[in-house]
Each structure stands twice: as C-alpha cells, then as structure tokens.
Amino acid sequence: MDKNKIPEVINNFNVYKQGNQFVGISGEVTLPDLESITATIEGAGVLGQYETAIIGMFSSMKMEIPFRMLEDDVFSVMDPTELLDLTLRASQQYTARDTSALDYMGMRVVVRGKNVSSKFGKLKKGEQMDPSVTVEILYILIEIDGETKLELDKLNSKYIVNGKDVLQKVRNQC
C-alpha cells in the first residue's frame, strides 16, 4: 500500500454469486487462511530439523458464509455438486497523510469452491437465525485498487503473489 495512505476501515461491502447480489448475507464474512503444507528437513549438514514450506501447496481452506435467515440465498449455495463462485466487493476507507483527506480504494475478493457443511441456525423470537454454509475453497483472487495481490488456483497449479507467478518455473519443469 502507498505509504501516504493510512488504512482505516472497510466502509461497505457486498457479496455476489455469479454476478447476482446476495441480500441475505450477514454483516461479516471471514476470509480463509493460507497455511502452507510443510516438510521436515533433516540430515547431514543440518543441525537438527526445520520445517520448509512446499511452495504453492496449502492445507484445506474453508470459508464460512453467514446468513441472517433461511431463505433462497442459503439454499442456492448448498448443492455440493456445483461450483460456488462468489465475489466480495469492498470499499476500503483511508486517510491521505499529506492532505488528511479521506478517500477510498476498491477491493475485490473472488472465491470458488464447493459446499462442505450447512448449519440451519436457531429459532428465537425477535432474533436472526444465523444459518451458514461452509465452502472448501479451491480458488481465491484478491485485488486491491484493481491490482492483483494474490491468486491461488489449486486445481490449475497457479499461485501469484503481488504480480509474481511463484510456480512458473515449476510448471515449466513438469
């Protein structure tokens, strides 16, 4: 990020399924974590052991999508035989250091995956039900201000970080 910009908050966001806006999503979606698969290295010339990341290989990534109530949006993402394609569009608010002016930059997160879990929530008078769907993420793209910061496609050996194709050499050799 530009050192002149002080990041503040997500001003607003929306969630879209294949271009159509979801209206039932609750106010918070937690993005998946990237946890590298590692191997233990030991042997001659190494004092003991250490863990090394196997570049481009990650553990299972899950994302829970919380809803307010049981409605069409929930059931539209429950079919485990269909690929779920979600786009989260957000507006990040920041302050410019040199002018103290408020401004905004866009953020887009695209995730694709398959439903692996569904929770139907609770029934309580005067409250939201809080159902949710958990998706196994096979693809994630994060763009900030129109620039790709991360793209991971587990099924197509694609791993780009800050514009660098980390697995290009590996793909060329295999």
Please describe what this structure looks like.
InterPro entries: Tail_tube. This protein has one domain (5-31, 59-173): Pnp Oxidase, Chain A (Roll). Helices cover 6% and strands 54% of the residues. It is built from two helices and eleven strands, in the order βββββαββββββα. It has helices at 72-75, 168-173; strands spanning 5-17, 20-21, 36-42, 49-58, 62-66, 84-96, 102-119, 132-144, 147-153, 158-161, 164-165. The mean pLDDT is 93.
Overview in brief:
The protein has helices at residues 72-75, 168-173; strands at 5-17, 20-21, 36-42, 49-58, 62-66, 84-96, 102-119, 132-144, 147-153, 158-161, 164-165.
List the helices and strands and how they pair.
Blueprint: E1 5-17, E2 20-21, E3 36-42, E4 49-58, E5 62-66, H1 72-75, E6 84-96, E7 102-119, E8 132-144, E9 147-153, E10 158-161, E11 164-165, H2 168-173
Give the % helix: under 10%
CATH architecture: Roll
CATH topology: Pnp Oxidase, Chain A
Largest sheet properties: 9 strands, antiparallel
Which stretches are poorly predicted, pLDDT < 50 over at least 5 residues?
A: none
Q: What portion of residues belong to β-strands? A: over 45%
Number of beta-strand segments: 11
Number of helices: 2
Computed CA radius of gyration, to the nearest angstrom: 20 Å
- What's the SSE pattern? EEEEEHEEEEEEH
The CATH C-level name is Mainly Beta
| Form type | globular
Write down the overall mean pLDDT: 93
State the secondary-structure class: mainly beta
Number of domains: 1
Distance linking N and C termini: 35 Å
Pfam family, one: Phage_tube
Protein name: Phage tail tube protein FII
